[in-house]
Structures are given as structure tokens and as C-alpha cells.
Amino acid sequence: MKVLLMGNPNVGKSAVFNRLTGASVITANYPGTTVEFTKGRVKIAKEDAEIIDVPGTYTLEPTCRAEEIAVKMIDEGDIVVNIVDATNLERSLNLTLQLVKRGKPMLVALNFWDETKHTGVQIDVQKLEEILGVPCLPTVAVTGVGIKALIEKIPGAKVSSYDFEDAERWHEIGKIVESVQRVSHRHHTFLERLGDASIKPFPGILITLGVVVGAFEVVRQIGEALIGYVFEPLFENVWAPIMLKLSAALGGEGFIHDILIGRLIGGNIDFRESFGLLTTGLYVEFAAVLPYVIAFYLVLSILEDCGYLPRLAVLADTLMHRLGLHGMAIVPMILGLGCNVPGSFAIRIMESRKGKFIAATLMAICVPCMALIAMIFGLAGEYGAAALVPIFAALFVTWIVLGMIMNRFVKGEIPEILLDVPPYRIPYLKGLLKKVWMRIFWFLKEAMPWVLFGVFLANIFYSLGVISFIGRIVSPVIAGLFGLPPEAAGGLMVGFLRKDVAVGMLAPLHLTMRQIIVACVVLAMYFPCVATFAVLLKELGFVDLLKATAIMIISALVVGGLLNLILSLF
Amino acid sequence: MPERITLTVLVSGRRATVVEIQAGQGLIRRLGSLGIRVGQRIKMVSRSFMRGPVTVKVGNSRVAVGFGAASRVIVEPEGEGK
Q1: Could you tell me the pTM of the whole model?
Q2: How far apart are CA B30 and CA B20, in angstroms?
């Protein structure tokens, strides 16, 4: 038995899916979180059933790719669970009536039932059930209310007996809404007023500035606290003695020793410079990067679940049009700040080829991932704002300028934004924490092998003398253009694999502030990590990715060279 | 004859009724599925700024519409003070 979960975007299909199957699909309070369908299994009436989370669609007359996928899925399903937004019954019923015409057994879940109270909406579920002739029930998916009843009712799904002329659909909807729904007048809630205020240019832009500064500060504070009070002491006090014992057991030198432990510095392990798999490899991932990743995903998930991102999309729309994108393109950019891999998946939110290409290229070049940002904080932090501001300003300015250039030269239309802006919602804590945990776990699983492989490769390169060899070959660029020592070539080589390890390789070189700035910017720009590259290959195709790569390399050369030149004037 | 204006110039906080959408079937359908259809009452939440999108309240939801699409939506504002 195949059960399809269908409904408008942002009605909580993925939340219902997670509840039904116990699975963990990322949910968020903005339309378009799910761009591909997801499958899961659950026992319904002792029978094994497949549940399919279909991307949201407003109509079965598809207007975009996600909707096309949704429409194609219908024929495969045995039962349709139509999830509707109880606070937006009229709009939701448009899809419901189109589903009715398909003649599949279905039932209707009225989600966000808890919100009907404060929006002043009263729905007579019994009456709706009688009119449509299919089971209807109220649910609150994020907290799990009504999910058990839903599972029990799925076998009772019926083909709707409701008959109407399709041309008169909106008229029919009007009649249904009139007979089942009472709307009582009520005053705007504080959240509603805040919601509307944050979408207006004024005070919306001020609120945005507050959110950005606040988010940055919170991420920094949590990240630093986790490093200072948890991870750093753990490594120094617990892990270092174990590693020293292991080092002694391995005889203090030799190939295996150098791969696992690295070089002892003054007879001791220096987690930043020893560069063994078990020392620097683990340290980079857990003590330098992970704390910021945890902090970032916590803040991101709160912003997502409360519904801030679509408002930011609306505010940013005018600017994004200049870059050949539209407002929703901020979603992949913000996800990219966490890790460029999920950011690359999210470029599907862009409807046109032009939008996808520009969004992907801009993200790959100018949006540093949290792993890279964390390492930049570590490397450039001692110089404070004097080093950090030029690095991030250079990336931001390039983002704008490159976007404007690509907007001019990449052919194609920029579709306009047409977006349902959901109400602000107070995040459901358990769901929020689960999402943060899922993302952290996913990050470790994705990143860990590459980090260890990167450290391993760095060691091999060093011992074979590859780095000094390559360093000599590319020295006109590295030394001449960027003003970096030839050994920095090692970092740039490993940067293809992982940016965090690459920055880690720069630490023992004791660079000047100018060199640190240039190196960090070039590392961020010249190429995304392999994991991102693989996703982009799938999303853009070979030819477009080749073009994007050329833009990346040129940008890194131009911006890195210019920065070196400008900074040498001071 | 009541005043007819494009959605882009409707003042924030003002209510209006959609009377015409001067666009092809595709856009009419897309706007319609979000509740912006002929005969619907809407309220301006946030007016366009530098040719950016407008945000209107339709029923219980807020919908952001790009400037180009919004300039094809013709509305009849309701009297002041409502």
C-alpha cells in the first residue's frame, strides 16, 4: 500500500511524515523545504505501508518543477492523505477539489488545528466530512496531536462522492467554506504585528540588521564557549596524555607514528601543528569546527522554524534581482553558510537555469562554510577585526559584483518572487532540538572521512616532497600574485578536499596578517570542496559546472591578486 | 466610476478588491492558487520599495508578489477609514 502525503507548500507535510514514520526529514517554516519526495515505512492496520512525502503543490496544473514531481506521483499512490492548512481553508481546498477529481481514495487532515483558535477560525469537521464524503480530522503535526487517529483512519480512506463542474471550482470552494467555517473577529496578535513589521522595508531592514548581528554574536559566543569550556579542555587534559602514550608505544617516530600522531613539538603534542590523523585531524573537526557548527545550526534552525527566512527573502528581493536571482535565493546562501552541500541541494528552489547557475556559482565562491569560517576565526582571530573584516568584506563585495556581472552575461529570465509568507510561529522545542541534532550528526558523517583523508594526504604529500615540488611550479602565482610562501601550495591542494584542513595546514607557516587575509579569501573562492563539487555536478550538469569552475578560478586569481596589491599599500 | 489602480500603488494598510488581472493563464493560475483572484478582497501589508515585491493579506495569509506581477493586478480600493 502506497500512501501519498499531499498538500500546499508549508502545511506541515514533512512534519506529518516524520510523525508517521519516525523518520527525520528536515522541516522548516517556509514553503519549498522539501524539493524531492521522501519515502518511509509504517505499519497500518498490521499491513506494511509505504508513506511518500510529496513536495508541496498549490495545484495539479503544475507551475514549477517541484509541482510536476508532485503531480506525477499521484498515479503511483493507492491512498492520498491531503494535508490542509486549517487556518487557510479556502486556498487549501483548491487542491483538495482537484484531488477529488482524480478519483483516488483519500482523507483530509486539517493541520495547524491549534492555530485556528487564535486566528478566530472555527471549522465544522463533521460537516466537511459529510460534504466531501471522505474522512476528515484535525491534526497538529509538530506536537503529534491527531497522528494516531490519522493512522487509524488511513484504511478508511474513500473515493470522494463530491461532484462538481471543474470550471466552477472556486465557486464550489466558496460554498463549502461558507457552510463549514465561521470566522470571528479578533485583534491582531503581537506575533502577527511583528510578522508584518519585519516584512516592511522600515522597520524590516532594521530588524534584519538586528537579527544578523544577533545571530552572529550568538554563534560566536556559543562557539567560543563550547571550545573554551568543553572541547579544548577535553583534548588538552584527556586526549593529549592518551596520544602521548600511544606516541611512546609507537616508538616516537616512523611512518605509522607520523601518520597517526604527527610531529611532536618540543616533545609534546601540539594539536594545531602536529598534523597526525588522531591529533590534528580530530582536533580540527571536533575542537575547532564542530562547536561553531553546533552553534550555527541551533541559530539557523530557530530562524527557520519561527518563519523569519521568507521575510528576509522578501526584503532581499530587490537586491537579489540585481544579481540575477530573486529573494528566495537567500535560502541556499544561508544554508551554504552552514555547509555548501545542503546549500547546493537548496539551489533547486530557483526555477530557472540562470537562477540555478548564478546561485550555485555565487555560493561556491563567496559563501564560506562554517567549517572554513571556524578555522578562519582560529587563524586570523589573533588579529581581530583588522584581519576578519577584510576577509569577509572581500567575499561580500565579490558576491555583489560577480552577481551583477553574471546577471548581465548569463542568458535567461529572472522569475519573480511569488511567495506565501507564513505567520511567525514559536518553535516546538523538541522538534527543534531533534533537527539540530540531525544536522550535526549529518555534518560529522559527511565531513569526518574527508577531514581524515585530507590530513592523511597532507602527510603523504609532505613526506614525498610533493608540496615543495608543486610549490616551486606554482610559485609565480602563489608567491608572485598572492604574496604567499611556496609551502602555502599544500593548503591550496588539500583545499580541494576540505577547507578546514587546508586552513589548518597554513597554521604552522606563521603567516603575516596580509598573507592570512589573502590566503583565506583565495581558499574560500578558488574551488568548493569535493563534496560540494559532486552535488553541483548533479544539479548543474557537466557543462555549466565547467563554466562555474572557470569563474571560480578567475575570481580567486583576480580578487586574491587585488587584495595582495591593496593590502601592500598600507 | 470607482477608482481602479494597479496593486503596486495601493497604500499600506488599505483594503481593496481585485477586479482584473492583465496576464496570461499561467500567471493568473499561479496568483489564483495563492488567493489573488478577481473578486477577492485583499489588504496591503507592505508596499513596494524600489520596485521590490508587495506583500498583501488575503484571508489569513500573507502573500509576497513580485513587482512585475503586482503591476498586472488591477484593484479597486475601498473607501478611506475602513
Answers
A1: 0.93
A2: 15
